[in-house]
Write a sequence for this structure.
């Protein structure tokens, strides 16, 4: 007889599957979606969606996992730069979602836009602290372009990705806590 999988473990497996799909999409056709020479960052988007769907603890876990996958497969930066940056983004979005942001889809694109811009600033700071001058070597104009294009991509994609992440995170403590909060607000 096979023991049943707990709801929390099932949610972790679903979240891992979403993260693996995200990194596969990023590495296979993410670079083909370039606008003005800038590709979308699906892993940052997953960190933002994780914060919206699972709260601060879940957002930090999802952001760290997404960043670690990006560190391992996408970049030549020291291991952990993206993991730390996206962990902080996921936590901040989750905290804001729990304490400040109203429930509803209309606010999600604004959160995606702002969190992406903030996430890129966090990445620049963490990169500078780890001695990575490559992040700023292309100049301020390039950084602004990267920020605008990635923020636009994430603002467009945050609603469906957050819905997917909510479904994946169902059964975790953070998602259940947000679900109860949403029911109280709606009721």
């Amino acid at each position: 007889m096979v023991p049943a999988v707990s709801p929390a473990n099932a949610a972790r497996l679903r979240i891992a599957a979403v993260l693996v799909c995200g990194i596969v999409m990023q590495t296979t056709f993410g670079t083909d979606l370039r606008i003005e020479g800038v590709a979308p960052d699906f892993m940052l988007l997953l960190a933002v969606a994780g914060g919206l769907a699972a709260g601060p603890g879940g957002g930090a876990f999802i952001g760290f996992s997404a960043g670690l996958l990006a560190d391992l497969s996408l970049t030549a930066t020291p291991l952990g730069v993206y993991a730390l940056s996206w962990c902080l983004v996921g936590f901040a979005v989750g905290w804001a979602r729990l304490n400040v942001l109203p429930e509803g889809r209309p606010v999600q694109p604004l959160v995606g836009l702002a969190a992406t811009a903030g996430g890129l600033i966090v990445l620049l700071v963490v990169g500078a602290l780890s001695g990575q001058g490559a992040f700023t070597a292309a100049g301020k104009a390039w950084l602004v372009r990267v920020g605008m294009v990635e923020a636009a991509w994430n603002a467009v994609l945050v609603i469906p990705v957050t819905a997917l992440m909510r479904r994946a995170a169902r059964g975790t403590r953070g998602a259940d806590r947000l679900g109860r909060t949403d029911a109280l607000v709606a009721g």
User: Anything to note?
Assistant: Confidence is low (pLDDT under 50) at residues 181-187. The domain at 8-175 is CATH 1.10.1760 (Arp2/3 complex 21 kDa subunit ARPC3). The chain has six helices and no strands.
